[in-house]
Amino acid sequence: MKPEHLKFDPHNLRYTGVIGTGGIGTGKFFVLNGNHTLGREESRSGHFLDVRDYCKQHIILHYILTLLGPSFSVIPIGRLGEDDIGNILYDEMKGDGFNMKWIEKVPKVSTLFSFCFFYPDSSGGNLTTDNSASAHVDAACIERAIPDIKLLGTEGIIMASPEVPLEARKRLLELGKRYGLFCSASFTTGEIQQAVQSGILKNVDLISLNMDEAAAAAGIQSGKTGTEIIVKSAVEKLQSHNSAIKAAITAGKQGSWCWDGRRLNRFPAIKTAAVSTAGAGDAFFSGLLCGLALGIHLFDAQQLASLVAGLSVTSPHTINKEIDRRSLKAFLQASEMTFSESVIKILEE
To answer: Fewer Cβ neighbours under 10 Å: the N or C end of the chain?
Structure first.
C-alpha cells in the first residue's frame, strides 16, 4: 500500500468498516502440452505459470483495504491450515494491514488450494480441495466476531463470498441484518439455487453475480439465452425472494448491469489489454463496495467497480497489487470513456 494515496477523511465515509468471510488460500496454474483432452490414465508434460493465485475473500477485501485505507476497518473471518502456505498468507495479510483477530490457524488441516490447468488453446479446468481449513469455517467461527459486528452496526458492511460453507455465510448475513449492517454476498453457479431456496436472500442487500451465476439463479441456460433476458430474469427472480435487493451482474467484455431497486443500468466494459481475467469478478464486487462505502450511488459505484475490474485483468496475478487510486485515475483518463463527477472526484482526492 502507498499511504500517501490514502487520504480519505473517515468522517466522509458512509460506512467505516467491513467484516467478511470466504475462502482464503492459493493455487497453481499449469499449462499442458497439447490441446487434446487429458486422458483418465494419461501422463502429460507441461509447465507452471509464474502466477500468484488468491481466493475470493482475500481478493475482495484486498482492494477495499488498499483503496479505502487505514481509517477503514477490514476484518476477515476464516481459517488457514497450520502449514507453509497458511503461514505465508497469514503473514502477508497481516503485513498488508488486515485485522487478523478472527483468522484461525487449524492444525493438521491444509490451507485451501486450487490447481488450475490449461491447454494451449486457453481452455482448461480447475481442481480445488474440499477438505481444507476454509471448509471448516462454521457458524461458531462467525459468532466469535459478534462483538465487532455489533460495534460496526449501521456503519458497517457484511461481505459473504464463496469457498466456505453456505451455512457459515448464512449466519454472517443473519447477524449482519440483526445489527443493522449493509449485507452483501456472492455465490457460485453451483450453489446459487441452493442459496435461493435456503432463504438466505432475505438478508442480502446487494448480490454480485457473473452471467453464468445469474442464469443459474433465474433457472435458464446462459449459452442459449441473450444477456439482456438473463439479466432481467435474474433480477425478477431475486426480487421475488427479496423485493428490496440490489444486484450487480457482470458479463466480461459486454460490461455490467446494476439494479438499484428501481432501475436497471448497463455500463460498458473498459477496453484494455487483458493478461488474465481470473479474479476480475471479485475485483468488480470489491469496487462496488468501495463506492458504496464512500457514499456514492450504486450506478456510480458500478463505474468505479468497472475501473477496478478492468485494471485487475492487466496483471497475470489474481490480485493486481499495482491498483491504487493513482493507477485507477490514470486508467480512467486513458479510457476515453465518460465517468460521473462522483467517480472523478473520488480519484482526485
So the answer is: C
